[in-house]
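Lab meeting minutes (informal)
Scribe: AK
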Amino acid sequence: QVQLVESGGGLVQAGGSLRLSCAASGRRFSRHPMGWFRQAPGEERRLVATLNWNGSSTYYSSSAAGRFTISRDAKDTVYLQMNSLKPEDTAVYYCAADTRTDVGMSYAAPEYDVWGQGTQVTVSS
């Protein structure tokens, strides 16, 4: 079974840090763009960050730029390092893979065809 499994979420105070991990199983995603999205209650799922197949290109939303870092390793795990967290960062965070391309990055949720189950991040003020 092909799946992505997120971990690393939790409760943190404003200004703190968390590192999310996304582990792949059932197949390799090393040739495909991957991304992190988040969804707060009552809101649509939004892109946080994405990177290309080898991590040489990255893109961040305006809210994530300068505070978050996306990366991937040779073991097919994708990370999201989140620093200087704010209460507005509170959401369920999802990892996703776009297996329909091996070129560039993917920016919109409909481009991604494999999703994890999500991990809750709560930032208290």
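Next up, CB showed the second protein from the same session:
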Amino acid sequence: QVQLVESGGGLVQAGGSLRLSCAASGRTFNTYAMGWFRQAPGKEREFVARISGGGIIDYTDSVKGRFTISRDNARNMVYLQMNSLKSEDTAVYYCAAVRGWTTYAGAYEYWGQGTQVTVSS
């Protein structure tokens, strides 16, 4: 079992930065790939970034060059550093864990509570 607790969301002006954190329980954290997803009002939940237990990273095209996902297996933490934020990035951001490698939200086994990111125009 994995429990995820997210933090770091908030209000930021366009062009600013936020760092999201996700703390995971358990001693098998390094066996899970971790993903960040987001869901804006009236839209489907979408993949943002993922990182394997070994550090392989993938991003959706819209955040490449602006967002950085990272993990610290020793601390059971995953992060999403978000720079050059745009109003388009406004959404609830979710941390998720899966045994595998996928961008499909339905495949992820464990989810955090979500944290709101609001970027002002």
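CB comment: The chain has a mean pLDDT of 95.
No objections, moving on.
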